[in-house]
Amino acid sequence: MTARKNKKSVSNFFDNSYRFRWAVMIGVTLIFTFILYPNLMLIKHSYELGDVAERDIKAPKDFLIEDSEATETNRKQAVEKVLTVYDHDTALSFALTQRVHQAFADIQAVFNTAKNSAEKPKTASSIASDKKTSIHEQVWQIKEEFERKIGFNVSDGAYKILEKEKFSEGIVKLITKVLSEILQNGVVSNKAILLKEADKGIILRSIETTDETVVKNLKLFYGLDQANAMVRITGKPILKNRRYTTTNLIVDFVQHLVVPNITLNRSETEERRKKAASEIKPILHQIKKGEMLLREGELVTQVQLLKLKTLQAQTRKEHIISKSIGAAMIILCLLATTYILHIPQQKRMANKHNKNLLFISSVLITFFFLADISTSLSESLIQNFSSYSIPVSSIAYGFPLAAGAMIICLFLGLEIAIPFAMVIAICIAAIFQNSFESFLFFLINSTMAAYWIRNCRERKVFIKAGAKLGLLNVVLVVATDLYMTDFSMSKLLWDSGFAFLGGIGAGIITAGIAPLIEIAFDYTTDIKLLELANLDQPILRRLMMEAPGTYHHSVIVGSMVEAAATDIGANPLLAKVCGYYHDIGKIGKPLYFIENQTTGKNRHDKLAPSMSSLILIAHIKNGVEIAKKNKLGQVIVDAIQQHHGTSLIKYFYDKAIQQKREDAVNIGDFRYPGPLPQTKEIGLVMLADVVEAASRTLTNPTTSRIQGLVQNLINKIFSDGQLDNCELTLKDLHSIAKSFNKILHGIHHHRIEYPENRVSSNGKGKNGNSYRRQAKKTQTIESKITKKSAGHLKRLGQS
After folding, report:
1. Which helix (H) or strand (E) holds 766?
2. How many CA atoms lie within 13 A of 557 on its CB side?
3. How far lies 63's CA from each of 39, 426, 493, in Å?
4. 461/751 Cα distance (integer angstroms)
5. I want to staple 473 with a disulfide (CB 3.0 to 4.6 A). Which of 6, 18, 499, 595 is the partner?
6. Mean pLDDT, to the nearest integer, of 664-673?
7. Is the pLDDT of residue 92 over 90?
8. How many angstroms from the chain centroid is the CA of residue 752?
9. 508-540: string of b/e by CB count within 10 Å (b at 16+)?
10. pTM value?
11. Distance (Å, rounded) from C-alpha 231 to C-alpha 640?
């Protein structure tokens, strides 16, 4: 039978009537997927610098991000460290010296030739030749050639001085010596540019040998103007014995000959700088999985924008979507499996199934968001209290996530709270980076939290359950820390403190949320039932004043169903409250109901049976309206609607048949509209209502008569099919009958008949003497009172 029932449940699960339930589960799955993988939202949102973040974004995985600014800074630093390369032409001094020697050598040859000719005996022909071309003329003829070879124009005055000195070798030596000393020191074309490198120096590279030397003291070198000025200073000790004109000549020649022998090698310097920059590797920062990339409400900074763009570049959209679809399918399978195996079979889900499922889904989604927020809040608290060195995991233990299972247990029972705890533990563990220890922690503490709150009838139970949960959390976190070999004293203290606060907080939050859920989903908890069970409730006081017979009947029915509910495992408190309020609809027209007719006149005697039937049936509708107006809760409304089921108002039906033919009477007009009782508690109210009312008709309510009445009435109700939907078994009916018998026997038990005006004929019997004395005493007292009060007091209790 169970297998057939499960098979039917599975087949119905895919029926069209379950579309709403599928929609709820798919909605929960999608919301969870977006919470678990916020990078999906990252793909959809394109941020620019200075935009306001719409939601928190965390790194879905470990990845590397290049710090381009830091990399560029390092490259600039590397480039700046590269010393500027200057070429040093060490051969330039020799080349210039050779040029001077060559230029002077040609003219010296003229003078040497003339000297040799003067030493030889002169002939007529030679004399004639000398006349034709003199030495002076020859020297001046090659002046242009001299200027070309020496490299600059020589003034006539300077040339005359040289001619006068016969372009002597001594002048050549003096010129080359001064020139060599100037060039040996080093001459640059633009010393101002050179001095910009004074802080770090330069590389002086020999053109001939390619040897390199790092030079720090750059002031040593001459600029071109400085070199020209230094010619006279340098040449002063060398030319001190020379005539002024000769000194000026040599200085002028050297100044014309001086050229820079240290030159900037721009191409080599740039090449070295490029090489140094290329050798600098990019600066990469590792972003850890779960690290906060962007917080909701923050202005997007350059660094955050770089992280987001890098994440988008490194993570392909197709990969994210496929992974998210996989996660969504797993969660959907988990929800569907849990629903099929656990939810439909629970009796509390039988009525208002869709509403209950929506409630479970709402709690599930709420705590998904709470878990997601807790991770962000943990990081924020760590930043604000960084001086205390609080671990992130410690703060996570302090969030009251077990309150979800407590809330479900409070309204739907432990049977539904346990699978709920399993689902939420798995999902929250996934949110907490697939942490196995988180799964165990939340599974155990949620399950036990639901267990400790299962019989909550007082507000203090929430605090007791929270305290127990806090102590359990401490044990769990200590065990977890020991298992993870992370048990430093400070971490143990922080974990234990936050875990205990999390337990206490779960109890407090459950106590605070419970009234809101009662209002939002129209649930009724045992705490509210205790409030409704107070006979001082306004509606019950009104029932007592306006319909005292109905009030007395309702109180007895409440007592009967409470006792029977305890025997069959139903909710005795719910059954009693339903018994108290099931007939509040009679307040509108109390005198049309027999228990309230004290005068002996029955108003239905003057009414047609159909009209009487309508008045009786109307008390159901009136009761529902009163219950809704006074916000008694849906369970009370259901009890009022269902406690008569579709039973027949037999008295007026039979009366109608007597007045008319049977085929002229519509039996449907004499049946209550229903529906049939849907719960054990309402079924009990139906049985107790009928049995208690019928028991009043017994003239001599002995034990056997009460048992026969109870048995007969329960069998009739059962045979009429009124109990088909309330899951009462034959065993339950047997227990109910025994309980009713006990209660009714206590109500209708026999009492000793005390003698007043009569005594036994023989004055004896059991306790005969005492009865006789009591009777005489009573008669004496009554006679005295009657004489004393005659004509002064109205008889009490009479109208």
Report:
1. none
2. 32
3. 13, 26, 34
4. 44
5. 499
6. 86
7. no
8. 74
9. ebbbebbeebbeeeebbbbbbbeebbeeebebb
10. 0.57
11. 126
